Amino acid sequence: MKWVLLTVVVLALIGGGAYYVLTLEPTEIEEPVEEIDVAEEMGTRSITLFFSTADAQGFLRESRSVPTRRHRDEEVELVMAELLRGPRSQAAVNAFPRGTKLRRAFLDSSQRILYLDFNTALVSNLNPGSATELALLGSILRTVAIDFPEIESVQILVDGLEVETLGGHIDLTRPLRPENWL
What we know:
Elements: H1 2-23, H2 38-42, E1 44-53, E2 59-67, H3 72-85, E3 92-93, E4 102-108, E5 113-118, H4 121-124, H5 130-147, E6 153-158, E7 161-162
Parallel strand pairs: 5-6
Antiparallel strand pairs: 1-2, 1-3, 4-5, 6-7
């Protein structure tokens, strides 16, 4: 009888252990994954940014480096981000109104049109006057002309919509040709 009882206990332990192992949730072992910075792999490129002079009588060039990207519109976004940061030189000014952000850049390669979609601060915070508007558009279009010569025209959007003008002086109902601003 002792053997029977001992055998039942042993079988119960084995059965219980098997049940525990079979119902145990599998856990994933997370191995550290080495993240690869695509930009680092692809390198950097030198860009030229244009900023208005303090007297709004001309433009100053500043060279910077940005990571290269696989898609041209992503590179445009990086270049515009640098332009929005403003000049490093004290002799130049940032023509963008406070709070302006680029929402998205989209390049229509077939028609060679670049769409730059800014937030509403571009219009609502713009200082009045044609000089301000010319300085702002000049900064954008000169930068695009030099850094992206394949782009034939630029359409400025605000919150995804076309605008007639930024400050009432320049018609934005049609795309602008960057080379005309050099």
